[in-house]
Design goal:
The chain has 374 residues and is an alpha/beta fold. The chain has helices spanning 2-5, 26-31, 44-48, 56-82, 117-135, 138-146, 154-165, 190-200, 227-235, 250-263, 274-281, 304-310, 312-320, 334-343, 352-355, 360-368; strands at residues 97-100, 103-106, 169-173, 177-178, 182-183, 204-207, 218-220, 240-244, 266-271, 288-292, 324-328, 347-350. The protein folds into two domains: 2-135, no CATH class; 140-368, Alpha-Beta Barrel (TIM Barrel). β1 (97-100) and β2 (103-106) form a beta hairpin. The structure holds indole-3-glycerol phosphate. Indole-3-glycerol phosphate binds next to β12 and α15. Residues 118-364 form the Indole-3-glycerol phosphate synthase domain.
Length: 374
């Protein structure tokens, strides 16, 4: 699960490769040169002094574009905050590293220290995605998609499993580690684990999407902050993708859900509290809502969260809209599964309790209290 565990920074990365949001643009730096010193060779005005680089006009246009992008980036944080989203998409005043002339020094600014693990992941993801986008621009991904095989029906597989077994359809998660639990399995062979899940009766798999090996539809478990990641997941063989309401403002969710539809992907939109649920219920075209029992900011797990969010009017609205709800995280026993099913879920997303078993397929039987592969 790269998205969950790759929190390390990328040494040796030039700032030039992720200029748009992480670093204020050059003309800003000129205006506020004391506050926002930049690494010299990384920015257009300085590059232009070297022979064989872009023209002053191009440089000006590039600068103007970056100013706009930076402003939009900052504006996004404000929009998100107005929707109750605590996670800031980017450090408010640029990254903590600052450079002045030939001297480099580190400026640790309070505002630029992530407040919790989710924010740290999102800030890291922003850098990672900017770099990947440079290597594989959207136009390249689109060409691959034209030749990609069709997606498998993720929602259909969950519904079929539910009506076949009378139990929630299982999305079985392949993960080696998580930030809250550390390493879950030393002898980690993702392919073998996924095969065992498939044999054990899982309807779908949740995995960092890589090669296509299985018949079960795949959920790409990622921290999506940019539509580019959705295209990338599609060419890597995903059939569904996770969108986290604690990270994404409504407008992003609307836009990303549309992109998913266009690409034939299911979108699993994840919520953790009432406010997020209400936001998501106000968005048209959502088929799958995940209720995460784990708070991604504190790691606290409470399975009664699923019940709480499905009570009363919210539950009725979900029924009317024919939305499938997935109970996520912290499910270990048949009692847990029964409890969330009683609360109204038709599917569950389970990682730790089954991935840890020596035979993950048998782990599924233990989780449901009976063999669901038949
Ligand atoms: O291992 P568990 O407790 O069974 O949880 C699985 C899954 O719900 C969890 O990995 C998860 C759900 N949504 C997420 C978002 C980010 C990271 C992790 C998650």
């Amino acid at each position: 699960m790269e998205g969950l565990i790759s929190l390390k920074s990328s040494p040796g990365t030039s700032l030039r490769s992720f200029p748009s949001f992480n670093q204020p643009p050059n003309s800003f730096a000129r205006r506020f040169s004391m506050d926002l010193p930049l690494r010299r060779s990384s920015f257009p005005a300085i590059r232009a002094q070297q022979p064989g680089t872009i023209s002053p006009k191009e440089e000006e246009e590039e600068d103007a574009l970056k100013v706009k992008e930076w402003e939009v980036g900052m504006f996004q944080n404000e929009v998100a905050a107005s929707q109750g989203i605590r996670i800031r998409r980017r450090p408010p005043t640029g990254p903590p590293l600052h450079y002045v002339g030939p001297f480099e020094f580190r400026l640790q600014n309070d505002g630029n220290t992530p407040r919790d693990i989710l924010e740290e992941i999102v800030w890291h993801k922003d850098t990672e995605v900017s770099q990947m986008k440079e290597r594989k621009p959207l136009a390249t991904l689109k060409k691959f998609i034209e030749n990609a095989p069709p997606t498998r029906d993720f929602v259909g597989a969950l519904k079929a499993a539910h009506s076949r077994t009378g139990l929630p359809g299982l999305i079985a998660e392949v993960k080696k580690a998580s930030p809250s639990r550390g390493i879950l399995r030393e002898d980690f062979d993702p392919v073998e684990i996924a095969r065992a899940y498939e044999k054990g009766g899982a309807a779908c798999l949740s995995v960092l999407t890589d090669e296509k090996f299985f018949k079960c539809p795949l959920l790409c478990k990622e921290f999506v902050i940019d539509a580019w990641q959705i295209y990338y997941a599609r060419i890597k063989g995903a059939d569904a993708i996770l969108l986290i309401a604690a990270v994404l403002p409504d407008l992003d969710i609307r836009y990303m859900v549309k992109i998913c539809k266009m690409l034939g992907l299911a979108a699993l939109v994840e919520v953790h509290d009432e406010r997020e649920m209400d936001r998501v219920l106000g968005i048209e075209g959502i088929e799958l809502i995940g209720i995460n029992n784990r708070n991604l900011e504190t790691f606290e797990v409470d399975i009664s969260n699923t019940k709480k969010l499905l009570e009363g009017e919210r539950g009725q609205l979900i029924c009317q809209k024919d939305i499938i709800v997935v109970g996520e995280s912290g499910l270990f026993t048949p009692d847990h599964v029964g409890y969330v099913q009683e609360a109204g879920v038709k599917a569950v997303l389970v990682g730790e309790s089954i991935v840890k078993q020596s035979d993950p397929g048998k782990g599924i039987t233990g989780l449901f209290g009976r063999d669901i592969s038949l």
